[in-house]
Amino acid sequence: MVSPSSLPLRSVILDTDPGGDDIVALFWLMALKQRGLIQIAAVTTVGGNVSAAQTFRNASQMLSLLGDTQTPLGRGLGEISGEDASHIHGADGMGHLSQQLPPPIHSWNTAIASPRLIIQILEQHPQQVTIVAIGPLTNLAQAEQMKPGVLRQAKDVVIMGGAFEQGGNITSHAEFNIYFDPIAAQTVFASRSDLVVLPLDVTHRLLLSQTQGRSLTAAYPHYEPARVLQQLWDFLTTTALQYRETQGELGFLVHDAAAIAYLCYPHLFTFQRRQVQIETRGEWSRGQTVWDHRLLPQQPNAWVACDVDVAQFFTCLWADFHASFAQAAPPVPPSDPYRP
Ligand code: RIB
Ligand code: CA
Q1: Which numbered ligand comes closest to the C-alpha of 21?
Q2: 47 in ligand 1 pocket by Cβ < 6 Å?
Q3: Which atom of ligand 1 is nearest to the CA of 160?
Q4: Cα 185 from Cα 191, distance rounded (Å)
Q5: Which residues have C-beta under 5 Å from ligand 2, the single-atom ion?
Q6: What is the mean pLDDT of residues 213-228?
Q7: pLDDT tens digits for 251-271?
Q8: Could you give the CA distance from residue 131 to residue 64 in angstroms, rounded to a whole number?
């Protein structure tokens, strides 16, 4: 097995709107950090699934639960401009679990604005930091507007968002992260020519099943983050079924985890080189991500994932979660009916 020390350390800004699948992504990122494969330069929160104030609080509580009191946390600017996704993630964005979690360890009133924190880090470490954007692109667009060209100072920009050959999830044509702030998406998709995009075309196949989830968390009954995760997953399973996203299977889609998988396991995906445009005005198509099918010259701005090896994706996810949980709390072997 390749030892982590033999791989370059990747530094990451996670821009997020927690949100249940955002929490899966955060857990995975922390597991990769524990293995020495990545370092987290900052977590920057944004309004989306729920309000900017709530996503900030959720991220702070989750970082506290995971014992991370050092990672800088940014606050999103402005309030929700579109309909949120609380119908999927719960009014608090955390499956109504926020009261059970440790209190927030960051102050909304004194927190740095997410766009400002993004600019600060990219200017201090040009071409060294990857932005992983798993919420609406509001923060990235505001950073670009405040400092034109700053997004090109990122080593790369990885986005969970969009829907191309696949229908939308928040409308018939649009995916939530793009739909929520299409003007911001338009700014980001004009900012550089090598965006990495993980759209619904691949994430709609990433079903975290209730069976698989329970087999993980049951092995660590004494590890609080595992217990919290299981309750969150049970909630998301109920809402996912209502929204007919899982073909009747018990589980939910881990859209945002696809962006984390790309960081260390890019070979799980197949990409197309595309020129992506954002519909910002359509009555029925607002927030749609559009590419041109005609055989005409194009000026590509993105690498868009069009396929994923689902089995290998979850092999990597479970292996990293087990390794992370086992480091924190030795697993309890499954009860052996044959052991006296
Ligand atoms: O469309 C999926 C995206 O919208 C994910 O980022 C999920 O968290 C929701 O925000
Ligand atoms: Ca998200």
Answers
A1: 1
A2: no
A3: 6
A4: 10
A5: 17, 19, 22, 134-135, 256
A6: 94
A7: 999 999 999 999 999 999 999
A8: 22
Does 255 contact ligand 1 (Cβ within 6 A)? yes
Q: How confident is the model at residue 81 (pLDDT cuts 50, 70, 90)?
A: low
The band of 340, judged by pLDDT with boundaries at 50, 70 and 90, is low
Task: List C-alpha distances in Å: 124 to 41, 118, 150.
Answer: 11, 10, 11
Please indicate whether residue 175, judged by its CB atom, sits closer than 6 Å to ligand 1.
yes
> For residue 179, what are the CA distances in angstroms to 182, 280, 287?
5, 9, 4
* Closest-lying ligand 1 atom to the alpha carbon of residue 134: 6
Tens of pLDDT, residues 35-50: 999 999 999 999 999 9
Claim: this prediction has a pTM higher than 0.85: yes
Q: Is 19 in the pocket of ligand 1 (CB under 6 A)?
A: yes
What's the alpha-carbon Rg for the chain, to the nearest Å? 19
> Are 252 and 240 a contacting pair, CB within 8 Å?
yes
Q: Are the CB atoms for 268 and 252 separated by under 8 Å?
A: no
Looking at the chain, how many residues does it have?
Answer: 340
| CA of residue 45 relative to chain centroid, distance | 11
From CA 163, how far away is CA 16, in angstroms rounded? 19
Residue nearest to atom 4 of ligand 1 (CA): 176
273 C-alpha to ligand 2 centroid (Å): 24
175 contacts 169 by C-beta, under 8 angstroms: yes
Instruction: Point out the residues that are catalytic.
Output: 255
CA angle 208-241-313, nearest 5°? 15
Cβ-contact 153, 169 below 8 angstroms: no
* Ligand 1 atom closest to the CA of 20, numbered from 1: 8
User: Does residue 169 have its Cβ closer than 6 Å to ligand 1?
Assistant: yes
DSSP 8-state secondary structure symbol assigned to residue 275: -
Specify the amino acid at residue 138. T
Comparison of pLDDT for 92 and 181, the residue scoring more:
181
